[in-house]
Amino acid sequence: xxxxLTPAPAPAPAxxxxxxxxxxxxxxSEVTKFRSLRSTRWTLLAAVVLMTGLGALFSxxxxxxxxxxxxxxxxxFNPVTTSLNGVIFxxxxxxxxxxxxxxxxxxxxxxxxxxxxxxxxxxVLWGKVAVFAGSIFPxxxxxxxxxxxLGQALRNSHHPGVPVTAHDALRSVTGAALYLTVxxxxxxxxxxxxxxxxxxxxxxxSVFFVIPLLATLLPASISSHLNPYLxxxxxxxxxxxxxxxxxxLPPWTGFAFLCxxxxxxxxxxxxxxxxxxx
Length: 278
Prior knowledge:
Low-confidence stretches: none
Distance between the termini: 70 Å
Shape: globular
Radius of gyration: 25 Å
Number of helices: 12
Number of strands: 0
Largest sheet: none
Mean pLDDT: 86
């Protein structure tokens, strides 16, 4: 009589707990994407080099020519602003990086994977905004202090520089970092709103460079009232870069206007993200 062997029952598969989509997990995924982009490292490096290098060039040039200045030019000269003039060029790099952060995903189609994993959509945008601001502000703050101290050191060989404790010096140095961060966030918002890298960069360049230039061609009765409220001119006041703007706003008021522009564009990008498919 033969025995019948029955196979042992297979063990039940272990249950894998379902992972909830939280803002923290979305934030970590955005950090990974931001760090993995090669353009991030190169753009940040370019921004720091532009800011410190050009600030040093402006400081060295004006220091060597200071003895030729007349009394009105010497009275209007600001050594702090001169050392921070690299901000004018660094803002291009940060703005382009902001557009690439959002518009680049739409150009490659990778945004569909992100939105499939996060059906509520808006946490993706908030994650990008938080990662960008948290990364750009420390970098721009370090670059701003480097520009300031290097610029004052170059001035000491021809004319004494100023310490960071001088009137409005610390506000200008930190204000430059704040301006670059919010300007870059404007690029993030434009990338989310326009969903195209080229269009976002073109619009950023128009808002921060072309429109202020064209506004100076208007009659003085119009431009004197319009220019102070343009995004770039309003933001420049906080670091002293709006010396040629007629009737400039107070520093923190101008920065508040720049933040308002960035918030409006971010809200428009969020609205489009919720209302239309990728």
